[in-house]
Write a structure and sequence with these properties.
Layout lengths: L2 H20 L16 H10 L21 H8 L6 E6 L6 H15 L6 E6 L10 H6 L43 H6 L3 E5 H14 L8 H9 L7 E3 L2 H10 L3 E3 L1
Parallel strand pairs: 1-2, 1-5, 2-3, 3-4
Helix pairs in contact: 7-8
């Protein structure tokens, strides 16, 4: 090959390479576990993440990611915000929602961490708060809930939710204790995660007590409870098992 021909080939290859480099890359499919840099981005990812709520039975020990909300949980673990906190929540009647609200207020308005993420790793009696009212009625959960819980009041919107979001000092506003509900905190980016082990143990307790109108086996009753988790909740294989994963991902532990 003559020198002039060789130069022509090289120039042609260089032009082709340049054209390829200038071509925009095709976006990769939305995969679980991708880093979200902001609360808004994480909230959008969690809204798209699938939640299976058509279980017929569930095993006592979850041993495969398809048995829990692994896409959503992966997104939470991958969150790239600078400050994030995981609450170990066990007592339905405890001050956990107020504590999470105070944490959000202090981090966002006090320290200026607008993309602060707060997560509730919910188990024990607190897990009852993550079941919808249909489940409360069907399984008479008020009978085993702490005193004062005739129904699941923690998932009911409050009048304060309609207050002016620009007035952060309103003692009866959006950021006050008057708006201490699960939906209110979810609107601010908080994530509530439900413990499978707590659901299984509740199913066994209900079956043993005869509070089982469909006469389901424990594994089927646990599945029915799982299917009645509140919208937006992330099902995890177990709270005490997931908390170390959250800590490994940089979440500060709180109780």
């Amino acid at each position: 090959m003559r020198a002039t021909d060789r130069r022509a080939v090289i120039q042609t290859m260089a032009m082709a390479a340049g054209a390829l480099a200038a071509t925009p890359a095709i976006a990769a499919p939305d995969q679980p576990g991708q880093v979200s840099a902001t609360i808004d981005e994480l909230s959008r990812r969690l809204a798209r993440a699938p939640r299976r709520r058509d279980y017929k039975t569930v095993p006592m020990i979850l041993d495969h990611p398809e048995q829990w909300d692994h896409e959503a949980l992966s997104d939470v673990l991958a969150y790239g915000g600078a400050v994030k906190q995981a609450w170990d929540v066990t007592d339905l009647a405890g001050p956990w929602l107020n504590a999470m609200r105070n944490s959000l207020n202090g981090q966002v308005f006090g320290f200026g961490h607008r993309d602060f993420l707060v997560v509730s790793a919910t188990h024990g009696s607190a897990n009852l708060a993550l079941l919808d009212q249909l489940a409360w009625d069907k399984y008479e959960l008020a009978q085993i809930a702490p005193k004062g819980f005739d129904r699941n009041t923690l998932i009911q919107p409050r009048p304060a939710a309609s207050a002016d979001p620009g007035d952060i000092q309103n003692p009866h506003g959006i950021y006050s204790a008057d708006n201490g509900s699960i939906p209110a905190l979810q609107q601010r980016g908080a994530v509530f995660m439900s413990c499978h082990n707590a659901l299984w143990e509740l199913a066994a307790k209900l079956a043993a007590a005869g509070t089982n109108p469909d006469r389901l086996s424990v594994d089927a009753l646990a599945a029915d409870l799982t299917n009645h988790l509140v919208s937006g909740v992330v099902l995890m294989p177990g709270a005490v098992a997931t908390l170390p994963e959250l800590q490994r991902a940089g979440f500060a532990y709180a109780r």
